[in-house]
Amino acid sequence: MSTRTSALDAVVFGVDIQSGDVRGDAPSYALAVYDGEDVTRDVVSHRKLRRLIDDEEPAIIATDNMYELAADKDQLIHFLGSLPAGTMLVQVTGAEQPEPLSRVAKRHNIPYGKDPMQEAEAAARLAAHNVGHEVSAFTDTTEVKVARGRSTGSGGWSEDRYTRRIHGSVRKRAREVESELEDANLEFEKDARESYGGLANAIFTVQARPSDIPVSRNRSGDVRVEIERQRRDGIEFRPLVKRRDHVIVGIDPGTTTAVAIVGLEGEVLDVWSSRTSDTADVIEWIVERGRPVIVAADVTPMPETVEKFRRSFDAAGWAPETDLPVDEKQHRTREHPYDNDHQRDAMAAALYALDAHEDQFARIADKLPPGIDRGEVTARVVAGEESVEAVLTDLNDDDESQEESTEHQPRELSEEEKRIKDLERQVERLQSHVERLEGRVEDRDDRIDELETELGVARREERKEVRRDREVSRLERKANRLERERDEAREEVETLERKVERMKALWKLDHSNFSDVSAEKEGLVPVKVVEKFTKGAIREADEQYGIASGDVVYIRDASGAGRSTAELLAEFDPRVILKDGGLSEIADEILFESEIPVGPADDVAMQEVDELAVAREADVEAAIDDWHERAEDRKRDRKAAMVDQLISEHRAGDNEV
Q: Residue range 602-608: average pLDDT?
């Protein structure tokens, strides 16, 4: 279904020329403002009309002749471009070849009179009922341009910084516009021109009218936003409704309602079906596509639902003498696409109704002179049961009454009356000139206010920028000072680290704290200290000073180690492990199987300073020899235990036999 909104829900300006001419100095207009219920009437100048349009932003400006508002095509295009985003110009009498307003008003039962105010009111009411064509010089594509709001010349401080700030503001505003267009689900293309510090401009080509775009034209500080619809090659007329030709309508009622629209020439214009739409929705769908001459059904008698639709349009009805067979309906609709059987039945009803009236339509067409609307005559003959001759006579009388001019011989004016007329025209011209001058003064006052506002904003921005520059300079000086202090601290740390390394190296060579070591300081081995027998402590010791194969390892607390911890230490393949505390059975077994000697730390004299330690080579060798002796005893005990177990198992087997 269409989502068209009726113009009855909005304000419509009906306009007709009251006096003067748009090509002259001071035309005046009859203005009828229609809001769907009440009509407000006034006579206004061209300038006041434009001001009212800008202030009230009506949905439609309705007229019977668009060139009463503009002298030529160029002025008309300028007028259309100056209208508010939500306002359109409608010519209610048609497109390129308009009909007389009286005929259009009579067709739609709208009150009409020849007075300009009555014509303005008739135009407003017709447009409010979606009669007429929108006059358009622009496409539905809109260009939104985000650009610099001021020159990038010197701004009172560093020109580079000033330019960078302006281009940065343009980029920020362009991102905001892009986000707003995306949030509105609008299709658009972006063309941005990069420049120093940001963007020089960004142009968004949006597939929508300005009224549908959530961005407004504005100018603020460094950035301006311009909105302009793309021009057409010429003037285009678009009907306010999709189709208003005379048509034949086929309806298949039921749970699913289907409707088919067929033109008087036999072309299938549209077909539609719905399970949820009510009677009002169906009527609106039909109205948007044409004016029914015949409403048809595919069964007899005509269903009550179809009869209601026929009465709604005051159209002729058609039903077959007997229900149409399915095979005939399929054959009649074979050249036209449809989605379901309901649409097929509705289409068949309309096409069979066309076939039944084909001869009558042909006779009507033969009797029509050139320039007469065939659909109008056909509708009145078929639905209104009038004769062709009677309809033609009525139409000719209407044209003659429209074309009649009220001829009269004006009396000769006296000199005083001529002088009064001249003065009145002079006063009217002067008043118009005063209005133009007042408008210029207002425009200049507005411009002065705008420039003063921009100047105030620029001064505030400049003061902020100066304060910001001062703060940046202060922070830069502080950062430089802190960097110097950091570099000095790093140099001092590096010096101390080198000193510590030298002291460690000297200490490792100087073991004079061993009272029982000779002055030559021979026979010492380094010892790698592990705080606890855990995987974390082992890895930490390895990271600090490295554990290599053949190293002497001292574990301060050997208790609590499991299989994985013992296997990790065994992977380093130490020469001997000196321990304080008891090993777990599983750890002892793993180290024994890996043939890694383990001995008590109390048997070896060690000297420790922080993580460093040394021991005498003789004590280490003694601890290793002691482990080997214990290992031999342990192996013999294991073998004896195995022999005893075999003997026991053998004896147990003999007893069973």
A: 84
Per-residue model confidence as pLDDT tens digits over 329-354: 999 999 999 999 999 999 999 999 99
C-alpha to C-alpha distance for 227 and 213, rounded to whole angstroms: 10
Q: Residue 73 CA to chain centroid, in angstroms? A: 36
Task: Kindly state the tokens that stand for 604.
Answer: 């070896």
At 323, which amino acid appears? D
Burial profile 493-523: b = 16 or more Cβ within 10 angstroms, e = fewer: eeeeeeeeeeeeeebeeeeeeeeebeeeeee
Q: 274: helix, coil or strand?
A: strand
Determine the Cα–Cα distance for residues 256 and 345; give it in Å rounded to an integer. Answer: 12
Q: What percent of the chain has pLDDT over 90?
A: 30
Q: What is the CA radius of gyration of the chain?
A: 51
Amino acid occupying residue 496: L
Q: Do residues 153 and 159 lie in contact, with contact meaning Cβ atoms separated by under 8 Å?
A: yes
406 or 138: whose pLDDT is higher? 138
Query: Cα–Cα distances in Å, from 65 out to 90, 111, 167?
Result: 9, 18, 48
Beta carbons within 8 Å of 203's beta carbon, 6+ residues apart: 143, 144, 145, 146, 190, 191, 192
Output the pLDDT for position 105: 87
Query: Which amino acid is it at 72?
Result: D
Pairing of strands 60-63, 606-609: unpaired
d(CA 656, CA 383): 121
Q: Are 226 and 206 in contact (CB under 8 A)?
A: no
Answer for the pair 623, 576: CB distance below 8 angstroms, yes or no: yes
